[in-house]
Write a structure and sequence with these properties.
six-stranded antiparallel sheet; alpha+beta; single chain; 49 strands
């Protein structure tokens, strides 16, 4: 029998949960209460975050950390520490305010100014004219307006002009040598003319007192201010109670705040620094200043592509070396791990601004691959709609559903250091309307996509209701779904223990499009190709050119396949783009020469980005496929793939090569799927069984023609496991005669008052709409009670079609457990005579908290629409 499942059946799951615990300077009693609540929710680790703490790395912080670590030691919990006093990582606890200018962020800007067509002499003070300034715009969001209206944290006087030129009547003249400081005197002839100024400035961006991710000594300021400070206080806990540090959304910080569309060729300032300047100068060679102006050109011609690629390549390599690798190396040298994530939103992972320019390079120094899902990004049936997120910003459902998790699971599999660990920060900023039903969907969504570590967002010690990015899972006892949330954590730990027990079978590799997008704004995102494969149950990873071009990672086989870090693939798919970087072109040539199928989607790149040279001749024979033909082309290659009948584009599979092979199955649709499933990873000759991670039990599975016959309901994943099962098999009961239930009494109580129910009334089920309309501001527990009589003891099945949201059933005072996913089915044992049935439904806090919202939060929120209590029919059956 599968040894991991044997351990799970004995309640020996691993811990894969480390929720945020926000620090504001609460008293000791509150800290101890919150640590007990976190532990009570089946979380065996915690990530401590200043939100912001009033004395981060000061006496009060160490006092609070002493309490947290004391509780963690008592409870055998691990502690992670978010590595800054403010988010995003890079503030360095305000250490930059006293540091030399050279350690602060720097940007490069290009400004143009049309000149009077008349001939004549003129003198301009370029700085006074604003030609050294970063671009400005009307703020596009309340958050951007807030930062825009704040005085800059620092003002610098080391602006520097790199190049000045005059374009008159189509002819360009370099005027750099004519500069006298910031003053330019020139004589122009008659005609249309434009002045172009390329300059370097630190007076750009919203976070001018943050570290420069491209500068080694600047990043060291963060290490000294935060990491070394914690080592000084808790060295003996490093590698024991203290597990590691977490970087939250580190950024390059140029451009407009959280602008998702800041591709090269658009109006923005761009990252710069001393090390970057030296490297760019070396790579671009003679005339490097003039060439840099191409960064504001959106063209895809070879000359522009070369400048775009070389600049971004230099930039992201420095971020990897100076930021990610430097911090990661410090952590590992001190016995702890380094984790976190960048902003990935809508493809931002390969852009500058609020991200780091390249997902894989930005996180390569970390020990887990990381992503986050917040604020209405992943949603049930959200592959296409809505088009706006919770902040009313454009939302790409295709990226969030088909790209986001793939980034982390791919890095986890491909990078030796990460050892298969893929982390997601999730649940945060969905609002009080998020409850355990949505949380269960999100958990399933990321588990089936290979994410195996989770940072739930968040536990807050502030008085209820804390308006900061709810929901908060405990809320000082006010959240009625706290215990139900704990059941989700227990389920996630079990499922993640299983998905972490072996390498995943992923037959297709898709080339990471980041380098291609640097040179081509219309380059196809990898998730576009990944979507059509995923909907056909063909699993894929996204693979960057760096890894394909790394001889320590890449292996070719005699089976016309290839592997990266031992992860084997049968085909490489290249999304449409204008050019390929040399590393990608050379790697594709090697693969094609070894007989590995290489497919181009929609169009084939025309040249190599760095050189403008044509692609290797061997790639000329590789086919160009439309998206519509991609699945059929992959299937035609003939290697073993899952087979699903009838077809279902919302059935998700994760094949795991554990100590016995197994497949996780999730139905992301709205209706149950019943059919036949054949999966190559399973050894049918050894027998198979099902494992249900919610109930922690094994079930039989029927072998049919063409595979296994099974039904998979939404929100109810199962594992199809190869091998014998030594544990008892649960046999789902068949309903027999119905026992009519009537005379229901309903009573309610708020979360913090549980179990003190009051205001009993007679009701008829379902009454969820009636309750929501009659008590529009009620949140809490809804208790339903009735009784029935039996002439003899009997096995019973209670089915609750739907409820809002978490359901716990009691028969004669004994709990039959908590369920979340409808329909909720409870096995009960009735006694002879009268039996007292009680159903308790826990709502979200949406209705109670909506009236407390103010300002921007009120503007963004929608009036509560969720029902309350039991919303579907309730039936009780004798079982056959």
């Amino acid at each position: 029998m599968n040894k991991t499942i044997q351990a799970l059946l004995m309640n020996q799951e691993e811990n894969h949960i480390l929720p945020f615990f926000w620090q504001h300077g609460e008293d000791e009693a509150t800290l101890r209460e919150m640590m007990a609540a976190i532990h009570g929710a089946n979380c065996r680790a915690v990530c401590v975050e200043s939100r912001p703490h009033p004395d981060f790395c000061g006496p009060k912080w160490w006092q609070d950390m002493d309490v947290i670590l004391d509780e963690a030691r008592k409870r055998n919990m691990k502690v992670w520490i978010l590595d800054d006093s403010h988010f995003p990582t890079g503030f360095a606890n305000d250490a930059l305010k006293e540091k030399p200018d050279a350690l602060c962020r720097q940007a490069i800007v290009l400004n143009t100014r049309p000149l009077d067509p008349a001939a004549g002499k003129m003198t301009l003070d370029l700085k006074a004219e604003g030609l050294l300034d970063a671009p400005k715009r009307i703020p596009s969001s309340p958050m951007e307006a807030y930062f825009f209206n704040q005085p800059p944290a620092r003002v610098f006087n080391d602006d520097r002009i790199l190049r000045v030129s005059l374009v008159c009547n189509g002819k360009e003249t370099d005027l750099t040598e004519a500069l006298a400081g910031n003053r330019l005197s020139l004589k122009k002839s008659e005609g249309e003319a434009e002045l172009r100024v390329l300059a370097v400035t630190r007076n750009a961006g919203y976070h001018r007192n943050y570290i420069n991710m491209t500068q080694w000594d600047s990043v060291r300021v963060l290490i000294d201010a935060v990491y070394e400070a914690h080592w000084k206080h808790y060295a003996s806990d490093f590698g024991n109670t203290i597990a590691g540090f977490f970087s939250d959304e580190p950024e390059l910080g140029n451009g407009f705040l959280y602008d998702k569309n800041n591709l090269l060729g658009t109006r923005q300032d761009l990252p710069w620094g001393q090390e970057l300047e030296a490297l760019v100068k070396e790579k671009l060679g003679t005339g490097w200043r003039k060439q840099l102006e191409k960064l504001w050109d959106a063209g895809t011609d070879p000359e522009t592509a070369r400048v775009h690629y070389l600049y971004m390549d230099c930039l992201t390599r420095l971020v990897r070396k100076n930021f990610s690798e430097q911090i990661g190396s410090w952590c590992r040298a001190h016995g702890v791990m380094y984790i976190g994530h960048v902003i990935e939103d809508d493809g931002h992972h390969c852009r500058t601004g609020s991200s780091l320019g390249h997902y894989f390079r930005g996180l390569e120094g970390q020990d887990m691959a990381g992503i986050d899902d917040i604020g209405g990004q992943v949603l049930p049936q959200g592959e296409e709609e809505p088009k706006l997120d919770n902040l009313r910003r454009p939302r790409s459902g295709v990226f969030y559903h088909y790209g986001l998790a793939t980034l982390a699971r791919s890095a986890a599999a491909l990078e030796p250091r990460k050892k298969g660990r893929a982390m997601c920060e999730l649940f945060g900023a969905y609002g009080w309307e998020e409850g355990v039903r949505l949380e269960k969907y999100l958990a399933d969504h990321f588990l089936i996509r290979g994410i195996n570590f989770f940072v739930p967002h968040a536990f807050s010690g502030k008085p209820f209701p804390d308006p900061d990015c709810p929901p908060h899972f405990y809320a000082h006892g006010h959240n009625p779904q706290y215990r139900h949330f704990g059941r989700i954590m227990e389920y996630m730990n079990r499922a993640a223990t299983l998905t972490s027990s072996g390498r995943h079978r992923v037959p297709a590799a898709i080339l990471y499009h980041g380098e291609a997008e640097w040179c081509d704004p219309q380059a196809m995102a990898f998730e576009t190709a990944g979507r059509v494969l995923c909907d056909a149950q063909i699993d894929s990873h996204v693979v960057p050119a760096d890894f394909l071009n790394n001889p320590d990672l890449l292996r070719l086989t005699d089976r016309k396949t290839f592997s990266v870090n031992g992860q084997e693939y049968h085909v490489l798919i290249v999304p449409a783009c204008a050019s390929l970087c040399a590393a990608a072109a050379e790697s594709l040539e090697k693969l094609a020469a070894a007989g590995v199928p290489v497919f181009f989607v929609e169009r084939k790149p025309a040249f190599v980005s760095e050189t403008g040279a044509p692609l290797p001749a061997l790639l000329a024979d590789c086919p160009v496929l439309s998206l519509e033909c991609l699945v059929d082309a992959v299937r035609a290659l003939g290697f073993a793939l899952p087979a699903v009948s009838p077809a279902c584009d919302r059935l998700r599979l994760l094949e795991i090569e554990g100590d016995t092979p197994m497949t996780m199955i999730v139905n992301e649709g709205t209706a149950p799927w019943t059919g036949t499933l054949a999966v190559p990873v399973l050894r049918e000759d050894c027998g198979c069984f099902l494992y249900d991670p919610w109930f922690n039990r094994c079930l039989p599975v029927e072998k049919g023609e063409g595979g296994f016959r099974l039904t998979v309901e939404p929100l109810k994943p199962v594992f199809l496991v190869s091998g014998s099962c030594d544990a008892p098999l649960y046999m789902p009961p068949e309903p027999g005669d119905e026992i009519l239930l009537a005379g229901w009494r309903r009573s309610t109580c708020e979360g913090a008052d549980y179990p003190s129910f009051s205001s009993p009334v007679e009701t008829v089920l379902p009454d969820g709409r009636l309750l929501a309309e009659s008590e529009p501001e009620f949140s809490g527990f809804v208790r339903y009670e009735t009784s029935f009589s039996l002439t003899e003891p009997a096995s019973l099945l209670l089915e609750i079609a739907d409820a809002a949201e978490g359901v716990e059933v009691f028969l004669n005072g004994e709990s039959a457990g908590i369920q979340i996913a409808p329909p909720c089915r409870f096995d009960l044992s009735g006694r002879k005579g009268e039996n007292c049935l009680r159903i308790e439904v826990a709502t979200t806090l949406e209705r109670q908290c909506y009236p407390t919202l103010e300002g921007y939060q009120k503007m963004l929120a929608s009036p509560p629409s969720a029902l309350s209590g039991i919303t579907g029919e309730v039936h009780l059956f004798r079982t056959k």
